[in-house]
Amino acid sequence: MASEFQRIKLHAMFDAFDVNDDGYLQEEDFHALAARWGRLPRVQADAELTERVRSVMLGWWQQLAAAVDTDEDGRIDMDDLLAMVDRLGALREAVTATADTVFDAVDEDADGHISRREHQRLIDVWHGREIAVGTTFDVLDRDADGRLTRAEFAELWVQFWISDDPTEPGNYMCGPLTGIPIG
Predict the structure, then answer these.
(1) Minimal CA–CA distance to 153: which of 104, 93, 90?
(2) Scanning 93, 120, 142, 154, which has the fewest C-beta atoms within 10 Å of its C-beta?
(3) For the chain, domain boundaries
(4) Mean pLDDT throughout 32-50?
(5) The pTM is what?
């Protein structure tokens, strides 16, 4: 059973992924997500990274469909997604496996760190539009060095997907959550 915090997080994810805004997640939404992420400069410049990003995006669809599309109609609504909450903890390995690809896609200058500007780009690509983030990056950047290392990013990425604790900074990896104060 999803907590109120998990409902808020999953609604934000659902809204970002429902590219055509029809109230369902469908395979074509994930193809559109792959195309959206494919427009990131580093992804555009690297065919291998383009394929990895596409594989991650379509892999999210395949995992969701296999887990919750029980009537096999190719559509997942919010209730279907909420039914998956109890399985999130078991997906830690799968989530961790996607962190490197997302990191590489967002690390535009390939310096091995995600800057504030690169993180803003992640949020904008995630949502498909510009998003005001306020102090989100400051919450993520716990050592206040102005960047996220690959290891920090991976930890935050897992928190984003799996955590039910609103105090964990990774919950805000993809931007602020409506009704939940950051920090």
Answers:
(1) 104
(2) 93
(3) 4-172
(4) 96
(5) 0.90
